[in-house]
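Notes from hallway chat w/ T.B., transcribed later so I don't forget. T.B. wanted the structure written out for a chain they're using in a teaching module, and asked if we could keep both sequence and structure tokens in one place. Agreed to drop them here.
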Amino acid sequence: MGANATLNDPELGKILVHSNVQARSFIFRVREGRLHLTAPSCATKGEILRAIEKLRPQLKIKLQDVKAKTERQIITPDFRIDAEGFTFWCEVAHYSSMRVAQHADRLVCYYPEGMDFSDEGVQEWLQLMIVESLRRCAKVFFPPRLHAMAEARGLVVREVKINSAQGRWGSCSQRGNINLSLYLMLLPRHLQDLVMHHELTHLVELNHGPRFHALLDKAVGGKEAELERELKRYDTNIFTLQNR
């Protein structure tokens, strides 16, 4: 199959297939209500279909869980995000309409009394404001930190980009460019460091072989396995990351 393809499944809906030269196995994720499959670049369509069939029951449950979670998740006046590097909350104010104010690493939503938070347009606007605030903070905080970490390890990063990826916290290209998800702002600092060291290690080892893990483990003080377990408790959903 090509680098990116779409499969239409009668039960699972559209499945977006992404071919990756570094992938060694089939990885399924749900993003924005759709299944995304990262497959090895050498995988045939038949192998992909067999992988889907083998995991069909689990994939159906995963889609149903995400759909149920999304349906009941809305930002209310009591909604808060209390991450180590980013906070968000709502305050009633004497305004005629809703507005937000950015204060360094804090975003505050001011709303008039009686505002209908259940309105779909209000929800879309609020979530967009949070994402854009996270993006602004990430662009300020992450590049200088990553470059300083690289310099300390004797490495050189060509370019640091901030994206809105929800399937991965970061990535590193063969050219030495590193991409970091804006949702990294919602992680504790020590897990941000883990992700950054992970991508920096790819400047030396593009795969995830024994040498890669040895280098990463050394960079994080011998705590790679422990930190990776902790990282798995998090995802890029602002609703599951609030109040941690």
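Follow-up for T.B.: The two ends are 41 Å apart (CA to CA). Might be a good example for the class.
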